[in-house]
Design goal:
By secondary structure, this protein is α/β, with parallel strands linked by helices. The protein has seven helices and four strands; from the N terminus they run E-H-E-H-E-H-H-E-H-H-H. The longest helix is centred in the middle third of the chain and has 20 residues, at 85-104. The chain starts with 6 loop residues before the first strand and ends in a 10-residue tail after the last helix. The model has no long low-confidence stretch (mean pLDDT 86).
Length: 185
Amino acid sequence: MSETGKRILLHACCGPCAVWPVELLREEGFQPEGYFYNPNIHPDKEFKRRKETFLSYAAIKNLKTIVDDDFKQDRWEKYSPEDLSRCVMCYTLRLEKVAQFAKENQFDAFTSTLFVSPYQNHELMKEICFGLQEKYGIPFLYRDFRTGYRKGQSMAREMGLYRQKYCGCIHSYNSSSFKDKITWD
């Protein structure tokens, strides 16, 4: 898929991670629209901060956005800190919602900013997305955005965007080595 003008629903975990994928997709002639759906982010103050940062970035880059304020912290609390199956649940929950939304709203394909992070389980996410492509009949636009991770983070820093210190859920917050430096003022 590389036709100019195709509408791509880009799941956005946050503003800084959207920077490089949006740049690359636009360079390739796509029209990405950002979809903020992250019910995993803990606590609520962090959720709001990441959402506001994403919307600030979107305004700077004139990126159309859709925001889903769903907040489901209790789903993550059911898992023990050692149980990494929560990550499978998290990826599946978010990416499935994106695929459904893309199909229902006549997008040409979907993808995610999660593919920019060297800290995510890239192969697992890819497997989930190709499965959702089959399930919903909406193309998954695969791009390994990791090649631009550092450049995107640098661009985010230059824009003054808040860059978080942990993945998002209560367990990643509790295990973050930066926990003591995180403030929500």
